[in-house]
């Protein structure tokens, strides 16, 4: 017992000693997306030149999907038609689906507006809009790490999901079936007025090419 | 004339079909994988080692069991393995990679993913073909998934015989598996997301090392934040390592497990750490 007390005291001492020497990594600016907090407001232009502000969609659920069509993890979902199926199903339910490209010009996944529209047509994309986030400010604001990286915002503008598209981190389209889709789970719960059970997960995919 | 066109069309179709047929499953051009065994003959009831030997093109890397901020670890599923037991992959300690804004854990140039296997005691002598479906991701600036099949013929006989080159290869990478028999006692506390790992015991057994050359890798991706700076120091007869709890941890960490990689003057020590609180 004495040794335990000594140990705790030493730990406390060490923590105290360390406090002065390291900058806290917890410090984050107000504009950083955090589950349970109001989603940071942004305005971006889509591939047709139309401007969209997150503010415009208050009262609706909004899905943010980080996109890079050359990334194998994105191809997993678009190649199988799964992403389009989700986009179609949820936009029909009144959900706003915004796909965001944060790839820097010259990097993998960067597309001109015409190229984006061509991809949308070729792949039968059913997103509300594909937004161009060059130079990546909105991606950084949301700490978008990978493609895909998914966010769900509720009608009150609160971020209720931040993370992976599903529970099976794999590039294999055969793994879509059998995985738990976290976006579906979050939307289902939030649309029913329930709390999202799994609100944060580790996203998987290609790094966003800022 | 029509016949000639028709002939060439047919030839073209045949060639296309042949090319399509000859195309292997989409493996990697950047990693050469060979499935090896440290035995040339295995006796029923014995245990031996299989391994996926990965020779990785310079500049590219594959991933450890906890890949860090992005990436995925290799996965394997076996077929034709009736009569054999194959274990989970044993992972040599990883290195740290900076991928743009992310920190990941993995291997460059060469690694061996080690798979323990044993032949059932009642297995009859003979040749058996084991096939592994291996999925992994290899990244440079961009990432490419690989889906490969690797087959190995296992000879079952009355006495186990070791394959000398492959045994040496396995031994070289078993050296890189986390040591579970070290004498250090781990404990940890969490304060506002700062995780303080403390190791006590015979620190001298580690030899000479520089605390700045220490890295802890959590076995699971929801324990430690890969991109947070780590600090280690020796004080009060203990080695202290300051880590940051993962943003994906659910609640306060109650269990900490991973490998502590210490670069000493006489080589790298990789300690298996398991602590709960």
Give a concise summary.
The complex is a heterodimer of chains A (about 210) and B (about 280). Chain A is built from six helices and nine strands, in the order H-E-E-E-H-H-E-H-E-H-E-E-E-H-E.
Can you characterise this structure?
The complex is a heterodimer of chains A (210) and B (277). Chain A has helices spanning 2-19, 72-79, 82-92, 113-122, 137-141, 182-191, and strands at residues 43-46, 51-53, 62-66, 96-101, 129-132, 146-147, 150-153, 159-163, 206-207. By secondary structure, chain A is α+β, with helices and mostly antiparallel strands. Chain A has a single domain (40-207), classed as Glutaredoxin (3-Layer(aba) Sandwich). In chain A, the strands form two sheets. Chain A has a seven-stranded mixed β-sheet. The longest helix of chain A is centred in the N-terminal third of the chain and has 18 residues, at 2-19. Chain A starts with a helix and ends with a strand. The model of chain A is unreliable at 1-29 (pLDDT under 50). Chain B has two domains: 31-173, Immunoglobulin-like (Sandwich), CATH 2.60.40.1250; 185-276, Sandwich (Immunoglobulin-like). Chain B is mainly β. In chain B, a hairpin with a 2-residue loop joins strand 16 and strand 17. Chain B has two helices and 19 strands. Chain B is globular and about 60 Å long. Classes of the chains: A alpha+beta (210), B mainly beta (277). The A-B interface holds A 7-8, 10-11, 14-15, 17-18, 21-22, 25-26, 70-73, 108, 145-146, 163, 169-172, 200-210 and B 69-72, 75, 99-102, 135, 137, 141-145, 147, 187, 189, 191-194, 196, 198, 221-222, 225, 228-229, 231, 235-236, 238, 240, 242, 244, 247-248.
């Amino acid at each position: 017992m004495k040794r335990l007390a000594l140990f705790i005291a030493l730990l406390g001492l060490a923590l105290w000693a360390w406090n002065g020497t390291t900058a806290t990594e917890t410090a984050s600016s107000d504009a950083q997306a955090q589950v349970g907090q109001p989603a940071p407001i942004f305005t971006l232009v889509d591939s047709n030149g139309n401007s969209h502000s997150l503010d415009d969609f208050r009262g609706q659920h909004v899905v943010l999907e980080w996109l890079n069509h050359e990334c194998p993890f994105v191809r997993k979902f678009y190649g199988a038609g799964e992403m389009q199926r989700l986009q179609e199903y949820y936009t029909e339910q009144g959900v706003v689906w915004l796909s965001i490209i944060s790839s820097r010009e010259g990097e993998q996944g960067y597309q001109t507006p015409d190229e984006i529209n061509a991809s949308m047509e070729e792949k039968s994309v059913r997103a509300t809009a594909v937004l161009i986030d060059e130079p990546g400010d909105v991606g950084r604001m949301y700490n978008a790490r990978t493609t895909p990286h998914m966010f769900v915002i509720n009608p009150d503008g609160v971020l209720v999901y931040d993370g992976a598209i599903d529970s099976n981190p794999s590039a294999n389209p055969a793994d879509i079936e059998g995985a738990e889709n976290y976006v579906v789970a979050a939307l289902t719960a939030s649309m029913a007025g329930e709390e999202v059970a799994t609100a944060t997960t580790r996203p998987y995919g290609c790094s966003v090419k800022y | 004339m029509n016949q000639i066109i028709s002939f060439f069309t047919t030839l073209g179709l045949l060639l296309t079909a042949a090319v399509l047929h000859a195309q292997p499953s989409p493996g990697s051009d950047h990693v050469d994988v060979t499935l090896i065994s440290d035995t040339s003959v295995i006796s029923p009831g014995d245990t031996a080692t299989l391994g996926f030997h990965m020779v990785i093109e310079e500049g590219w890397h594959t991933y450890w069991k906890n890949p860090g901020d992005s990436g995925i670890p290799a996965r394997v599923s076996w077929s034709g393995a009736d009569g054999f037991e194959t274990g989970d992959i044993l992972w040599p300690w990883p290195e740290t990679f900076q991928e743009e804004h992310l920190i990941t854990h993995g291997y460059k140039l060469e690694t061996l993913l080690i798979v323990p296997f044993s032949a059932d005691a009642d297995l009859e002598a003979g040749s058996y073909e084991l096939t592994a479906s291996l999925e992994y991701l290899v990244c440079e600036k961009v990432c490419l998934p690989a889906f490969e099949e690797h087959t190995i013929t296992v000879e079952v006989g009355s006495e186990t015989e070791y394959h000398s080159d492959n045994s040496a290869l396995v031994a070289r990478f078993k050296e890189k598996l986390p040591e579970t028999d070290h004498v250090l006692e781990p404990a940890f506390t969490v304060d506002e997301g700062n995780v303080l790992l403390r190791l006590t015991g015979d620190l001298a057994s580690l030899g000479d090392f520089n605390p700045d050359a220490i890295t802890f890798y959590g076995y699971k991706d929801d324990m430690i934040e890969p991109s947070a700076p780590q600090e280690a120091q020796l004080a009060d007869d203990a080695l202290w390592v300051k880590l940051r709890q993962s943003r994906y941890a659910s609640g306060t960490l109650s269990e900490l497990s991973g490998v502590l990689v210490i670069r000493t003057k006489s080589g790298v020590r990789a300690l298996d750490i398991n602590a709960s609180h």
